[in-house]
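in:
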């Protein structure tokens, strides 16, 4: 009797494993799956946020609002630093640093030009 129950349990377990294996989608173990994909999404989101905030800095600079320009440029710099190591991102980071430096000096027009250059560099394709 126990031999019969054991065979049934083994058969049912095998059917369950086969059914589960055929119904579940295959997940990549290596390559673009998992943690690397998440890092790429995180970098892409930070890149987009940096562009958005740099554009806000430009708008504030055109209106002569140095304080708001600084706030947006500093936030854009934080996101750009997390956006990966692409050459255009690095150039955008440099321009944002210049914009912040000139903004702290009270030069809204020069800071705006650097923020515009940052937007240009950050918007270029990787």
């Amino acid at each position: 009797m126990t031999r019969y129950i054991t065979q049934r349990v083994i058969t049912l377990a095998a059917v369950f494993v086969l059914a589960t294996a055929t119904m579940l989608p295959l997940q990549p173990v290596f390559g673009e799956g998992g943690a690397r994909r998440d890092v790429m999404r995180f970098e892409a989101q930070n890149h987009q946020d940096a562009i958005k905030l740099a554009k806000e800095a430009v708008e504030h600079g055109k209106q002569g609002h140095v304080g708001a320009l600084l706030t947006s440029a500093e936030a854009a710099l934080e996101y750009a630093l997390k956006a990966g190591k692409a050459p255009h991102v690095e150039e955008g980071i440099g321009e944002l640093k210049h914009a912040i430096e000139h903004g702290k000096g009270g030069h809204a027009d020069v800071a705006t030009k650097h923020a515009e250059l940052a937007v240009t560099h950050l918007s270029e394709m990787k």
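note: The helical segments are 2-23, 35-62, 66-81, 87-104, 108-123.
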